[in-house]
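Pasting as-is:
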Amino acid sequence: MNIAENDPEAAVQLSALMQTLKDRGWILDTNIQIDYRWAADDSQLYRRYAPELIALAPNVILVVGGTGTGELQRATSTIPFVFVGTTDPVKGGLIALATW
């Protein structure tokens, strides 16, 4: 995540995520496992965590912030990831703008 583990905002966001998952039938350590990596916007930590997360072979990775998303994008093309907290993913080069 793009925030520090002890950041009060992290606790609020994590609580909301866990409640939403629970409301949809996903129960921690029953039918879902979550492994956290807290990077606090440290590029070196993102580079270290990307291969760690990929080695876990998850079904999906949730990323908070553009820097972490970019590191995962460079590290894998087979594991899907969802990113939040990115201001302009097109301008940041995270996605291409589709034209129809």
